[in-house]
Specification:
Blueprint (H helix, E strand, L loop, with lengths): L1 E6 L4 H17 L3 E6 L2 H6 L7 E4 L2 E5 L5 H8 L1
Parallel strand pairs: 1-2
Antiparallel strand pairs: 1-3, 3-4
Helix pairs in contact: 1-3
Length: 77
């Protein structure tokens, strides 16, 4: 199982990011656990400069936009 953090304020782009990851994981058969991180201190400690941002198993892999399904597949594969 991959542990995924979606960093952001809880805006519609952050919600959309989590949804893309969940739908893509289901489509490709990868087990994930998504946590939405909205605490500003935690976001800064993760090194996030722009949101929404994604970390997978503790490694920051994307920030600044909602990924499309192709990008999400690359992150989860």
């Amino acid at each position: 199982m991959k542990n995924i953090n979606v960093y952001g304020s809880g805006c519609k782009n952050c919600i959309a990011t989590a949804e893309v990851l969940e739908k893509t994981a289901t489509a490709i058969g990868v087990a994930i656990k998504v946590e939405k991180v909205t605490d500003l201190q935690a976001i800064m400690e993760a090194g996030v400069l722009t949101t929404p941002a994604i970390s997978i198993d503790g490694k920051l892999v994307h920030s600044g936009s909602v990924p499309d399904q192709k990008m999400a597949t690359a992150f989860l594969s």
